[in-house]
Amino acid sequence: MLSRTAAHLYWIGRFMERAEFACRLVEATIRLSALGHDPQGGQAWRSALSVVGAEGAFGEESEPLTPFSARRFLTLDDENPSSIRSCLAGARDNARAARTAITVEVWQAINRAWLIIRDRASPGGAQATLNLVEELKAEIRGFEGALGRMLRTEGNWFMHLGSSIERGDNTARLLDVKYYLLLPPGEAVGGTLDRDQWTTILQIVSARTAYRHLYQGPLQPWLVGDLLILRGEMPRSLTASAEETVTHLGAFAARSGRQGAADRRARQRLSRMQDLNIETIIQNGLHEWLQAYIAENAAIDRAIAEQFRFG
Amino acid sequence: MRLSVHYTTAYHYSEPPRRIIQLLRMVPATFAGQTVLDWRVNVDCDARLRKARDGYGNATHMLYVDRPVESLAISVEGSVLTDDKAGLVQGLPHDLPPPVFLRSTPLTKAGPAVERIAEATVQSAAGTLDRLHALAANLHRDIRFDTEVTSIDTSAEQACAAGHGVCQDFAHIFIAVARRLGIPSRYVSGHLFRRDGRHVQEAGHAWGEAWVDDLGWTAFDPLNGICTDDAYVRVACGLDYRDAAPVAGARSGGGDEELRVEVRVSEAARQAQAQSQS
Amino acid sequence: MAAPTAFDELWGTSRGRKARPGLESLAAWLADLPPAELDRRQQAAEAAFRSLGVTFAVYGEEESAERIIPFDIIPRVFTAREWSALAEGLEQRVRAINAFLGDIYGPRRILADGAIPPDIVLANSQFCIPCAGARAPHGVFAHICGIDLVRTGADEFWVLEDNARTPSGVSYMLENREAMLRLCPELFEILDVAPVDSYPEMLRETLLSVAPDKAKDPVGVLLTPGHHNSAYYEHSFLADNMGIELVEGRDLVVDDGVVFMRTIDGPVRVDVIYRRIDDAFLDPLVFRPDSLLGVPGLMAAYLAGNVSLVNAPGSGIADDKAIYSYMPEIVRYYTGEEPKLHNVETWRCREPQALKYTLDNLEQLVVKPVDGSGGYGVMVGPAATRAEMETFRAALKAEPHHYIAQPTLALSTVPTFTERGIAPRHVDFRPFVLTGANGVRTVPGGLTRVALREGSLVVNSSQGGGTKDSFILEGGAGGDG
Questions:
Q1: Residue in C closest to A107 by C-alpha
Q2: Which of B77, B1, B78, B6 has its CA nearest to residue B37?
Q3: Residues in chain C closer than 8 A to B22 (CB atoms)
Q4: Is residue B171 one of the residues assigned to a domain?
């Protein structure tokens, strides 16, 4: 496979994952700000912006932060590289450039998602935004389904590899924005505001049911941390993402009989995580740990680019 | 004359490029009036040099460097016996029919300034040869030599309108006017032995050749306003600078590039000349 | 300008009263199909094309202007007899084109013999100087030719243009057929239509047949300018269907005269490049130095015989309009036969009498620049405004050698689905002729382009044209007496 094609496929994976995450972020933030603790929704939306690292990019000098302007910024703004439209444009551009390496079904799912948002001028009200996001999520699920039905060869692995790296990054950033809310083990959630915040986080990574299923008790922040960082059963957890990266890199190694720096780094990261527990992480500083994870994730991303000659 | 040429082209890169590929036109041919005695092209790093010939008949080398280098120097050393043929270029081993050299190129496209010179040339003389002589003399008189104002991308029209340039610009204007008058003409790159004693130069030389029906290709140096003589070493020809330049290159990466060219053309000892002629 | 006398591909000259022999069943199908059903199928075709992304970006517009070329589901049909005569003529013409290219870049006998004026070749800007003296691998230059034909009567076919650089449109031939099989399967029961689906395989064989002799298991690639190019859909479609890599210039590197593509497993040697970029962009060391689409060193690799380029650089001169006007002489010179396909009468405005005739008859002529393509800068006399005509008159006087003029032909029509029901629309036809090391082949089909505006004779997709499937009937059933 051409190195350039491989890079396009990897970025399709990343962009589609990022688009989906942005959809869930918008959805959950609408819900959180509707719960009424935060009438202007300012705090909820501000933290949503910081999850995607876009606090600085949002031009508050020219436009005050309101639920509407934040929704517009996160869904449609072409200047915001993390907006849903930017992500889908990026995915489609890469898909077009790698047309011969993806199935018609994969292409159509991406193209349809793009067509939904391409000419959208405004996110509309909260309900209209929810409808938009709902529609997009359906197409993105279509993409994932199409990916699942694609031949299990390099093309497929590169897209999966891209989404596993992106997913790790997204989950880590989401947790990092709320890390100060993670109370020491054993302590119960304080007020309803806190509980709503945690529920929101779980919703963003579609883990509300998973939490109840795995922990069966009342919501405890440190358990949310445990779920999102260490539980391999939870698809969007950092461990699951790290595992997935190892698995897909392993598929290449099995085909070619060769391994590289990306394989080694990814495996080392996973084995370090398997020896961890949430208590240690919180005691040693969750924020520092998450920052290190994000940096290591970026290093693995670079190693992948190097190993498969994306440059 | 027996001329010896030492010609170095040295590149220095701010970051080593991953690979370098260059097309070199640095080897002269032997023809009536020019005999190449010996000629060598050397590169100062691990590189592959492959000889070929381009469509014009110019001898070429392809240069491939496939690993990072901080610098690259190409050096040419050779000696040539020349005769004064009053500009006539005959007996080239490979050449194309003259009509090929009627088409204009982006660098030699006529505009109003070139047009004016074309008209003045027609007024000043009758007959192809006389017009070409007049053209070379007029450019020598009217266009000012200046190394600071034009670049390798300057067109004949731009240089002509500005009224100054280097040998390349003089050659382009000469060609543009000749073609405008329906005379096949072409760009020549090569070297010039300076009788004024300035043997070390910062660049090669360039001039023009035009087709005169009864004579064939005739070479004019509009910078000096004369036909070429035994001080000229003809290396390559083409429709314009781009086709005849000593180097066309590309590289992957490598940041900024610093280029230094040094040409040294000197007259070899008389004795050596006598020996080689015997 | 509706050209009421135009020959109709279905009805001949009967004006809808009697289908041409062999096409009665098509006429009956059309008569029996309820308008609403036709409408439904037409819509389904458009939806399918859009969702597949079979798009076309208009020159000079941004990438966002990806457009679907309108597809019309009423096919254009050739009988077996018509086709076999056409195919013979096409193959003769393409043989001559390749012999011509081999000659002008080699010994130039045709010029020495005075069969055509030497300047028309040598002073032509399409004469590729870097290719002078170069022998194309296996002696083939124009491996893929798209010959544009028009029809004016039952036995009157004319060659309008020989596209010998990188003719496009073959993906529409294939996609149109796919759409027809899905939307109108019954047509293939009542008509014995020759299949076209072998084209990608034929193309692949043609490409690999011209690989350098030393290549044992040759690797072919399709070189595209990239996914913002208007023909990108076709590039990806063909690469996909041939099972070869679709590469951009930046995917290729030349080292020591050999072309490699950059893959995840390291460099892989490339032997044949089906390039869909113009000569001028192939290699910045030799052609346009500002080209980012090409590959530095590619020409050196080609000239060293280490890679084959399809079509070979320099082929473009064969479709130059000044050369076109000499095609009858060229065919005679190289084949020793009379041309089986005719040229449209052409006035070369570089010749004073021709210029005078053109200026005197502007309102009846089509005037074209000699080096243009894509229908830009063409004046169709009978449809031109006074102002357009004056612009061309001035241009003709200023630069006569840039233009040729041709009579306005009454292009044949085909019943076409329009907003106001089925109506005749003018068409042309582009068949694709392949030339490899083992000879010349023509796939039984082609691209029918239709001018969708009433009365219009301009079929270019950039100028509001659409396409139709082209049926070639197989022996017996479709034979007309």
A1: C52
A2: B78
A3: 285
A4: yes
